Task: structure prediction
Amino acid sequence: MTPLLSVDAVTFRYGKTLACDRIGFDLHPGEVLGIVGESGSGKTTLLNCLAGRLQPDSGTIRYTRANGEAVDIYRLGEAERRFLARTEWGFVHQTPRDGLRMGVTAGGNVGEPLMAVGNRHYENIRHEAASWLTKVEIDADRIDDRPTTFSGGMQQRLQIARNLVTGPRLVFMDEPTGGLDVSVQARLLDLVRGLVRDLNLSAILVTHDLAVARLLADRLMVMRRGRVVEHGLTDQVLDDPHDAYTQLLVSSVLQT
Amino acid sequence: MNAETQNSARDHTNNPAPDHTNDPAHDPGYNFAYLDEQTKRMIRRGLLKALAIPGYQVPFGSREMPLPYGWGTGGIQVTASVIGADDTLKVIDQGADDTTNAVSIRKFFRRVTGVKTTEKTAEATVIQTRHRIPEAPLREGQILVYQVPIPEPLRWLERRESESRKMHAYAEYGAMHVQLYESIARFGRITTTYDYPVKVADRYLMSPSPTPKFDNPKMHMNPAIQLFGAGREKRLYAVPPYTRVESLAFEDHPFEVQEWDDACALCGDDKSFLDEVVVDDAGTRMFMCSDSDHCRDRRAAGHRGGAEGAAAEALAAMTGGTDDGSNKDRAEDWAKDREAAQ
Amino acid sequence: MYVAVKGGEAAIDNAHAYLDETRRGDRSVPELAIAQIREQMSHAVDRVMAEGSLYDPDLAALAIKQAQGDLVEAIFLLRAYRTTLPRFGYTKPIKTNEMAVRRRVSATFKDIPGGQVLGPTFDYTHRLLDFALAADPSRPVKAVPETAEPLRPDMPRVTEFLNQEGLIETEDAPAQEDDPAKTADLTREPIDFPADRATRLQNLARGDEGFLLALGYSTQRGYGRTHPFAGEIRMGEVTVSITPDELGFEIDLGDITVTECEMVNQFQGSKTKPPQFTRGYGLVFGKTERKAMAMALVDRSLRAAEFDEQSGAPAQDEEFVLMHSDNVEASGFVQHLKLPHYVDFQSELELIRRLRKEADEQQRRDAVKEAAE
Result:
């Protein structure tokens, strides 16, 4: 099977610090890859490189488009890369504020990606937006309310709806449950898990929370100081960690 | 420095200005059309680029003009760059030739070019406008120059120039429809009434300048050249003749223009853009054509509206355009009164 | 019935006649001479020259007189005149280290080679209205005593002492110094973002004093703090020189008065740069110390991205600062709101009426429905 994303030797430096050191992996269609590690391990930098938002110093990221064509995303012009991101990808930010237009209604937020790809029928856009609000467990009556009137959990679910409404093939998620209470987190995780399964989404998920990773990811990559220290099936990595650092990570979670 | 040497100094380039010394009305203290020939050429190059990429905003080295920014310096620079001694100039503001700023700009051009001016749309070869497109259809060979305050249609969504330029480059205009969506969601209709965004030649999103959306359809496939100048924001853009200009809308909420329940009190037109006038302290309203030339034409052709007697006279005086001298008389009386009071 | 008001040329001419009368005021009071404004209103003249970006005290004084003391209007007059002037060439960069100093103070060292020179300053005056000045216009001017020793002609820069220790960033002359014509000219080319520092400084030097003052002040109150110290402020005369193509050697054109301010700002270092002091720079025509200091604060704030210290404060936002600093642009656009807008207003009226009508109809329908239920 052709990988959806094929990453080879991606390296990124901040000054003398190596934030990503020759990172490589393949992501297959329908697969969820978790990238875990403590803050400063380089996982968010890597995610930004993968999502076409931060050009790596070296290495290649090849993506297989819906039409079957494989492209090196940093060989594309910025216009094409932005088009690709708009039409085939989603990006869920840790802070909903970064991924939503706070001054625009929930319906407008979910409808915008549809309009961006050319949908020009108001009622259809509205209908689709309402149906997505329901899917992410937001009352469709709230369609004309602004996200500023939503709770943190609702804002995050709204951001997810906005990202999924155009049926992306690949979704990047940066600590999607980061700023939420534990009970709210659990509900959101259930929701995301359901959506990933139902839509057969491919996703790359960055998190420092191993419980989140266990629930959502098929495979895990453990990062430390810009390098991948362990990589394997999620259960394997978490239940039988080989690397000393992974062992430490796993045991510290168990202790708390 | 006297005017003579100032002028020759201004033309120190190798390309002297065309000789207009025979124009009786042209103030010899200034180069023809005020700007030096180098600057006019620079602006014309910008305009050619703008015409080649319809709707695209071309940055240009806007000059500091002797009229304030926001009062038409962009339009004035464009007009100054394209006008020739044989042109006939019409200047309108709010559709009328006699609004203060139109009078002031026309006076400026009369002084610095000596060209013939007119109030008749059909006679004009160059029409500088603020906020309206004439009702009379334009024809090939005419140039319509718009004064533009904010050339960037995306400014209200993305105030950063560095970002909005990218949105244009990548044709990322989804957010613009969000604005329309929001207004339908809230009010049941698109509530933008002027400066209504358009897409030009199926590519660039463009601000038509703060003309009422009533005028948007006139831009589409217009035989005239439409040039836009924003002096303070230092941008030029253009719509070449016979170019598609589409007002943004939804399939199920199509673009529509304003309609009035009334007709012009003077000429009876119920199809032109009407201005509302408060005629007495009780707040009685009357409507009349915003395009004074159009209204005069219709009246000359025998059309009449509802206003009669004194009201009709007063309204006609407002749209008369040509100064009948009564203002001058009043001014002289006033001056005498003040003199006496001193 | 109102009398129809026409915006005819006569009305405009009359308004301007009235304006001229207002300018003159009471004719029993002697008319101001340009020289009086130039000599006795020198701070106003300096501000008009600085923001009008044309160094000509007589024209600035004329502009102030014509504008009836409205300095922004006077700046506009000077700008509109300036734009018609031909470019004969580009001067060499002025050498402020060779300034004939009239004032020079530093807040960073108690004593400095060359000394602290107060010069003509409002500092330490008690702001008490001097009624004697009103009572007796011919009051003799206080004599300035001769200094014991003349000031050093080569007043060293305070920041150089820090530089000797390597504690302050070194500033390399921009590449365009060899060819001043290569420096961006904001009056000829539109600004492009991101702008280089030379372009930013050019914009600030022409910018509105009040705007820069407020922005500089905001950085002190925590909106993008830069920990500034007034390293050195100097005011005096510098020589302007030019190398005409025809001659091939440098000739002096004359002297101009400028105020220069170098702020020394803390910088804690980054991954690529060691901790050191950094600079904010202000240079303005005339005796314009308040503006030079504000400019230096804003210049340093605009370098926030360079030092990776951006916090979203207004003074750090290049587009915000540079696009709103010009008072001729700002004044024109704010005041254009008094031009007729009745076509647009009519459009809004029509909309509001229609929305109101629809809302009323909806309410009536709801009421009928409710009554029926």
Notes: DSSP finds ten helices and ten strands in chain A. Chain A has a mean pLDDT of 91. The interface with chain B takes residues 78-79, 82-83, 86, 101, 104-105, 107-108, 111-113, 115-117, 120-123, 125-126, 143-144 of chain A (CB under 8 Å). The two ends of chain A are 40 Å apart (CA to CA).
